[in-house]
Amino acid sequence: MEQLTGTADELSVLLDGVRVSATRWCRASVSPPWGIAVAALHRPVFWLPVRGGSWFETDTGGRFWAATGDVVVVTHGSAHRLRDDPASPIGPDDIHQRSTADDRTELLCGDASLGGARLPAVLPDVLHLPREHVRAGSLDAVLADRSPGSAAVVARTTEDLLLRAVRHHGPGVDTDPAVLAALRLIRAEPARAWTVTELAATAGMSRSVFAARFAASMGEPPMRYLTRYRMTRAAAHLRGGDLPLRTIARLTGYDSEAALSRAFRRSYGVPPSAYRTRPSG
Fold it and tell me: What is the homologous superfamily of the domain 177-277 according to CATH?
C-alpha cells in the first residue's frame, strides 16, 4: 500500500491551527475614475476582481495590477488602496457605489476572523494569487447560496482561498529552523507543561534569544502561542466529536474542566458547552 501522507512540511507546521471561523463579504461596482482606501483591520482581507481589474497599493510602496479572477489577500489586514488608475483620487464613498455602467469594475471584498488565531508574522503582508491558481468561480455561487449551513460553506471556501494564496508564496517564506522545531514539539505534545526555557534548550539557545526569534516569526510570544494552540485543539475536539470535557482538558494540558473552561471562555467568549452546540461558520 502506498502511503499518501507523511511528516508535515514547514508551511503546514506554521499554519497548523489556522481556521476561518467567520467571514464578511460584499460586492463593489465602481465606475472610473475610482479609488478605495481601506484602513487597517488586523485580520486577513480579501479582494477578487470579477469584472475588470484594479491597481493595488500598500503603505510600503508596493503597487501591482490585479486582473479579473485574481485573488489578493492582505495577510495581516494592513492599510491599503485600490484604484482603476494610479492617478485616480480616493473617493470616500466609492466602495458604496452600485454602478451599472458598461465600463464598471466589480470587486468582491471580504475579511475573515480566525477564531482567536493569527497568521504567522513571517508571511508577506500581501499575497497575490493569479487566476490560474484560483477556483474563484465557485465563490460567487457560494455567496449567493442562502440555504442552511451556507455560513460554514463560505467560511471553508474563504479558508481555501487563504491557504491557496499562502501555499503559492510558500517557497518565499523565510522560516526559522529553531521556531519550526519548537512548533513541531508543541504540535506533538500540546498537553505537556512546556516552558520557554525548555523550548529554548531544545533549540540550543538562551531563553531571551529564543523568545525574541519566536515572536518575530509568529507575531506572539511562545506561551501565548501555546495557549492559543491548545484552545484551537480544544475547539476542534468540541466540534469534531463527543469527548467528555474532562478528556479534552487532559488532552490540551489542563488539570480540570474548570481550568479549561476559564481559558476557553477567555479565547472564544463562550464556555465550551455553548461552543459545542453553537452553529458552525
Answer: Homeodomain-like (1.10.10.60)
